[in-house]
Amino acid sequence: MSNNNFSRRGVLKTGMVASAGLALPQYLRAQESGFTNAPGASEVILGFNVPQTGPYADEGADELRAYELAVEHLNGEGDGGMLGTFSSQALEGAGILGRRVNYVTGDTQTKSDAARASARSMIEKDGAIMITGGSSSGVAVAVQALCQEAGIIFMAGLTHSNDTTGKDKRANGFRHFFNSYMSGAALAPVLQAAYGSDRKAYHLTADYNWGYTTEEAVRTSTEAMGWETVNTVLTPLTQTDFSSYIAPVLNSGADVLVLNHYGGNMVNSLTNAVQFGLREAQANGKNFEIVVPLYSRLMARGAGSAVAGIFGSTNWHWSLQDAGSQAFVRSFGTKYGFPPSQAAHTCYVQTLLYADAVTRAGSFNPCAVDEALEDFEFDGLGNGPTLYRGEDHQCFKDVLVVKGKENPENEFDLLEIVEITPVAQVTYPADHPQFAGGALGTCNPGA
Amino acid sequence: MLGLEKKDFRLLLIVIGLTAFAPFLLNPFPEGSDLAQFNAGYPDLMQRFVIFGIFAIGFNILFGLTGYLSFGHAAFLGAGSYGAVWMFKLLSMNVLPAIAISVVIAGLFSLLIGYISLRRSGIYFSILTLAFAQMSFALAYSVLTPITGGETGLQLALSDPRIFGAAQTATGNIPVPALFGLEMRSSFEWNVGAWLFTFNAGYYLAAVFMIIAFYISIRIFRSPFGMMLRAIKSNQTRMSYTGLNARPYTLAAFVISGMYAGLAGGLMASMDPLAGAERMQWTASGEVVLMTILGGAGTLIGPVLGAGMIKYFENIFSKINETILHGWFAFLPDGLEDVVVAMIYPFIGKGWHLTLGIMFMLVVIFLPGGLVQGGQKIAALFSRKKAEETKPNATEPAE
Fold it and tell me: What is the pTM of this model?
């Protein structure tokens, strides 16, 4: 009997709670400030969502180092890094709007789902006002959409696909990194100068979104200067041995191999290609050449001596001689003992840009930040004069064309800058066909 | 009551109680305290607890009862998510049609895969399901990009042709999934002293579905059909000799558990309208196997506990970084602090997989019946007599 009593009460009680939960009025996280996660008077929390496990864990670790450095500099610790060289002098090293900067970290695992879960916990549990990071376009696009829904600003980390600021652009998302189109536009003239305009290209493309946009960008740019595309072959992202894809290349009549691969894919495919003797081969009476559209130092390290003499593009390189880059490399090197990667650079810069936009706007409200960042022109952050275009929230700046060094002096000195392609050459209209199909929408301040 | 024995009904009530009071139970530490790090009572994680609970309950119907170890269940979860997001894109932002279609799609998909895979049993069945799931993943990741969104996942866009309901909100944003106007994201926050409890609409919707799923699972476990499934597990050959064809039963169990996975997928998409291909990857299928075994395969409550445990590790432990550790051990002298942090750090933060792996090994070695067996052992410590008396009927670990 007592059991029955208990259960009846239990049913009533739980039923009431459950129905109360369901019948709750539409109650958003309304705050007096009018936007989600308005920070308190003493501290502000930023969310650093980077891959700590999985194929891009190296990049993620470097991004996290850069974020920690940025937080130090924003709070007025350390040597200030790029705060001194940044053209906007709104930041004084006293936190953001007088609030001390604190941060939470999460692991994206380079999976859209995990990245969103981690970002949601930062927003819902830790009260992060801004999310930044990531080392893959899939993750960037997914987290950007989430931040748009939640009313949080997203400052993309390393994401190179056109879609991040093309088809999938969002009003609350901003990208400092360059993109596939810019890679193609910057590489084409250098390739023409080095290899001539009568070349036949063979593309191996990683079979996912970033691969497609990169292949399209490089193909369009090279075809415009007279190259012919012999064939394009998609390779599975999980492929580790590319010999079966490399073997047919030599007999295809092509004399250039374009590897639209990133990370471990690129390391493996390039190593395979070099092992197959493509570098020494002759085709159509010319030396056979290999091109890697997106380079990173971490990848170059993985591929070792195979990268020597191979052209590619990159967003930033630590050997740049401008004051901003040098200041950043100096403080990063002092703290960690080695130079930063391009992933670290873009993440550091994004954090500074956000803090600066909040300071200039005088508010953490995403819509105010939106307004402060849109069409913002700045300099001194390592890429020369840069524009944050308001139409698609993409940064426009010079792009570096690099080449693998023949005789690297140490494991960080693997790339040399061939040319700094001026920004005018990589600028495109916001409605360019490679970026068509998306809409920015309007900024969402959340609650 | 409700066609259940007293014992099962009590278990159901416990589950109802736990889910209803989860916002309190999962937030035991006051906001702002050092231990607030371990609070799990925020909407996203609570939703994940119950959604993966559903997934694991469904998986347990197949694995726990028939012993058929499917390594491809994530494919149904993924198919369900895609179905649900397409419903949001084409039909309306109401979650009910989306959830319904996700269950139907996952059911049809599992019927197809089950029909083929169940021609084999044991390891061959596992490999077949694994192959199908990887195939689905590869298709979703690249070949079917127009339908699945490829690597970036399928998401809503401002240009979606939504038949019922507006394509955009008045402020020019994408509308969010809702149940007749009650947004899944909306929460009610309750401040009690230093504590903050969050009651989230999406969580309670998912919780109601989980309780229904749990109830159906109890009924299946206690039904003649469930008995038949157990018979398949204990000796399928003998069953065939007695003239019974086992295939329809296993297929039914496979489809039911596939539909559970679809329900979980639909709910996931309803809480967060995005469907990514990674949901179908073999690691996701492996995760539900881990959940079930960790909690206790063949038991009723075990899979839910296992799901909760793994999701807790994934979301809470992975976020403890070095700075937080240094904060904890700041009272130690400098050198010692660094040593202690260096010793612990590999096991938390990005090393959460390592800790989970060790836990899993310990559970499998010392508690083959999973956490449920651990609970039973503890209960037996305190009341030996009662434990002996109830054990024969209790949720016994799978043999």
Answer: 0.85
